[in-house]
Structure formats: structure tokens, C-alpha cells
């Protein structure tokens, strides 16, 4: 087991709870879990540890929302996501922890700015929003989502910004996100294993934290259907800004 202090374990436990909650109810909330892990562990170690916990959360997300996915959106995103995953793997293999964290922070803040600007322009023009986004939009967010999820498990906020930009309803948002990350996270496993990041210490730590992920997911499933669309979107944006700012500074 990794030798950590009491407060470090408390932070990791909170992150595990948030991981389950975010998978079942508020996808953007995963940023908080990423930040807590990155604050306690080296960036690469935190990436490997978070990935396994995310996969546990993915199981609950699929159980609850698998029927709500919009598959044309997933297929549209796939080519750009694959390119982003490969770029992220190369970056993770070459860059140090500090560069990884700051790069992800910059990308997240940029995505928030673009999303808010697009929505402001749409509201001002009184034009109907795009239903599933165009090729440029899906390619940009898909590539950045693949890149950030590979290097820091921070693809959730990027994809959340994509779904917010396309005005996706909550249930479709959660269903499409559930399938997206269930597939992507499994694809990432051999890449991180090839870098030797799944050490026995990481596996034992995740085993100890898994019950908290399950508990968070069960709570999330109970509250997800009660969250209004507007509140849901604001929570995603605020949590993403907080997490991105921490990673950057």
C-alpha cells in the first residue's frame, strides 16, 4: 500500500465518493476527484489510480443510463477521440508531471470559454441551438477529450462542455457519456499498463477505495433524476472551472 498520511487518505476517500457520484449524476464533478488525486499523488500515478476507479463507476453509469445514449454522436466523435488518445499517450510518455497538469488546466479553461461564448452568441442571435453539433465542433472536442482523458483522466469536463454546447438533455447527456467513457477507459488500460503505471501499490489502494466509489454511485442514481437541467449545467461549469484553475495554478 502507498504510504500516505491521514489527510491524504481522507482526500482520496472523498475523491472516490465524488467519482461514483459524478458517474451517476454530474459528469463534470469528476474534475474534483481528478484534482484531489493529483494533489495527493504524482500526476502519472494519479492517472492510473483514477482510471481503475472510473471503470468501477462506469459500470453503474451503464446500468442506469445505457438506453439513453445517442449513438450517432458517439460514432461522430470516434475518429477524433482515437487521434486524441494516441497524442495523449505520446505526451504522457514524454512530459513530466507539472507539464501534464498545466496542459490539462489550460485546455479545460479554453473549452469553458468557447462553450460559454457559443451559447451567448446563440442566445443573442435568438437562433435554435445545434442538436448534435457540426463536424468541426465534434472533431475539436473529440480530439481534446481523447487527449485529456489519456493524460489525466480529465476528459469528462471536455465532453461535458461538448454536450452543453449542443444543448443535450440530461438523460441523453448521461447515457451518451456513460457509453463514451466506458469504452474509452477500457481502451486506455493497455496504454497505461505499457507505461508500467499499474503498480501493486496502486492496485491495493484502488481496492481499498472501491467501496466508496460504489457508495457515491448509489447516491448519484437517487438524485440524478431530480436535478433540473439549468442547475445541472451550472454545476458542471462551476466544478470544471474550479478543477481547471487548480490544475493550472
UniProtKB/TrEMBL annotation:
Sequence intervals crossing the membrane: 74-93, 99-117, 172-197, 203-224, 231-248
Membrane topology per record: Multi-pass membrane protein
Cellular localization per UniProt: Cell membrane
Keyword flag Calcium: no
Matches recorded under InterPro entries: TM_pro_TauE-like, TSUP
UniProt entry tagged with the keyword Transport: yes
One GO location term (cellular component): plasma membrane
Keywords assigned by UniProt, alphabetized: Cell membrane, Membrane, Transmembrane, Transmembrane helix, Transport
Chief location bin: membrane
Protein family: Belongs to the 4-toluene sulfonate uptake permease (TSUP) (TC 2.A.102) family.
Protein name: Probable membrane transporter protein
Organism: Microbacterium hydrocarbonoxydans
Amino acid at each position: 500500500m502507498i504510504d500516505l498520511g491521514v489527510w491524504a487518505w481522507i482526500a482520496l476517500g472523498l475523491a472516490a465518493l465524488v467519482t461514483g457520484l459524478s458517474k451517476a449524476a454530474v459528469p463534470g464533478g469528476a474534475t474534483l476527484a481528478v484534482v484531489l488525486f493529483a494533489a495527493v499523488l504524482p500526476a502519472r500515478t494519479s492517472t492510473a489510480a483514477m482510471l481503475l476507479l472510473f471503470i468501477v463507476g462506469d459500470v453503474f453509469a451503464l446500468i442506469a443510463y445505457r438506453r439513453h445514449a445517442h449513438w450517432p454522436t458517439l460514432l461522430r466523435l470516434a475518429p477524433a477521440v482515437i487521434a486524441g488518445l494516441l497524442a495523449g499517450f505520446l505526451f504522457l510518455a514524454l512530459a513530466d508531471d507539472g507539464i501534464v497538469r498545466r496542459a490539462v488546466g489550460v485546455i479545460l479553461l479554453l473549452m469553458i470559454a468557447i462553450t460559454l461564448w457559443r451559447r451567448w452568441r446563440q442566445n443573442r442571435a435568438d437562433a435554435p441551438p445545434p442538436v448534435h453539433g457540426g463536424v468541426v465542433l465534434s472533431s475539436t472536442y473529440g480530439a481534446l477529450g481523447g487527449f485529456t482523458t489519456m493524460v489525466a483522466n480529465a476528459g469528462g469536463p471536455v465532453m461535458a462542455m461538448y454536450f452543453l454546447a449542443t444543448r443535450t438533455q440530461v438523460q441523453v447527456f448521461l447515457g451518451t457519456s456513460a457509453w463514451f467513457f466506458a469504452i474509452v477507459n477500457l481502451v486506455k488500460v493497455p496504454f497505461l499498463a505499457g507505461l508500467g503505471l499499474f503498480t501493486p501499490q496502486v492496485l491495493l489502494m484502488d481496492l481499498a477505495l472501491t467501496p466508496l466509489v460504489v457508495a457515491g454511485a448509489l447516491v448519484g442514481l437517487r438524485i440524478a433524476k431530480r436535478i433540473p437541467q439549468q442547475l445541472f449545467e451550472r454545476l458542471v461549469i462551476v466544478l470544471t472551472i474550479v478543477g481547471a484553475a487548480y490544475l493550472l495554478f
